[in-house]
C-alpha cells in the first residue's frame, strides 16, 4: 500500500519501499523514499500516508487482512526442518515460548478494528524522520551523529 500510494499514485520517488523489521526484539518499520522532491515535502506525504491513508485502508479491509494473517499463522509446518527452525529460534533467543503460534493466533482473534487503530495511532503519532541530502545539496541536516542524538528529547 505504501508503494502504491507514494510511488504509483503520487509518483514521488525513484525508489520507494517499506520494510518491517525486528531488531533486538523491537519491531519497527522502515519507509524509504528516494526522490528529487524536497525532503520536507516527502516527509509531509509520508506522514499523510501514515496518519490518513493507511488507517482508512486497514479499516476497509480489516477482516480480510486479519483472517489472512490468522490462516497464515495457523498453517502446520510442512517439513521437520521448519519445526526445528522454530524451536531453535526459541532456544537461541532464550524466550522458550514453544507454543508461540497458538498464543499469537488466540491474540489475533481478539483484535477489533478500533483497538488496532488506537494502538497504531499511538505508535505512529510521532516518529523519527531522517533526511539525507545528496552531495550537491546546500542543506546539511547534521554532521555529527552524537550531536544529533544529544539533540533528541526522549519521552
Features:
155 residues, mainly alpha, two-stranded antiparallel sheet, 6 helices, 55% helix, 12% strand
Strand order across the largest sheet: 1-2
What's the gyration radius in Å? 20 Å
Structural class: mainly alpha
Nearest-integer average pLDDT: 79
The helix tally amounts to: 6
Specify the helix fraction band. 55-70%
Beta-strand content: 5-15%
What summary fits the major beta sheet?
Answer: 2 strands, antiparallel
Distance between the termini: 30 Å
Q: Rough shape?
A: globular
Tell me the number of strands. 2
SSE run:
HEEHHHHH
Model regions low in confidence, pLDDT < 50 over at least 5 residues: none
Characterize the structure shown.
- By secondary structure, the protein is mostly helical.
- It is 55% helix and 12% strand.
- The protein has six helices and two strands.
- A two-stranded antiparallel sheet has the order 1-2.
- The chain starts with a helix and ends with a helix.
Secondary structure layout:
Layout: H1 2-9, E1 15-23, E2 26-34, H2 39-74, H3 80-92, H4 100-109, H5 113-124, H6 145-151
Helix pairs in contact: 2-4, 2-5
Write a concise synopsis of the structure shown.
The chain is mainly α.
Amino acid at each position: 500500500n505504501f508503494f502504491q500510494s507514494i510511488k504509483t499514485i503520487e509518483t514521488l520517488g525513484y525508489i520507494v519501499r517499506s520494510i518491517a523489521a525486528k531488531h533486538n526484539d523491537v519491531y519497527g518499520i522502515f519507509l524509504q523514499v528516494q526522490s528529487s522532491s524536497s525532503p520536507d515535502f516527502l516527509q509531509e506525504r509520508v506522514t499523510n500516508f501514515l496518519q490518513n491513508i493507511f488507517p482508512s485502508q486497514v479499516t476497509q479491509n480489516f477482516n480480510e487482512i486479519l483472517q489472512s494473517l490468522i490462516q497464515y499463522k495457523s498453517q502446520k509446518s510442512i517439513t521437520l526442518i521448519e519445526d526445528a527452525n522454530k524451536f531453535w529460534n526459541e532456544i537461541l533467543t532464550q524466550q522458550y515460548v514453544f507454543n508461540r503460534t497458538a498464543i499469537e493466533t488466540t491474540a489475533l482473534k481478539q483484535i477489533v478494528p478500533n483497538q488496532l487503530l488506537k494502538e497504531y495511532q499511538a505508535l505512529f503519532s510521532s516518529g523519527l524522520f531522517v533526511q539525507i541530502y545528496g552531495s550537491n545539496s546546500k542543506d546539511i541536516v547534521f554532521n555529527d551523529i552524537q550531536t544529533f542524538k544529544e539533540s533528541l528529547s526522549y519521552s
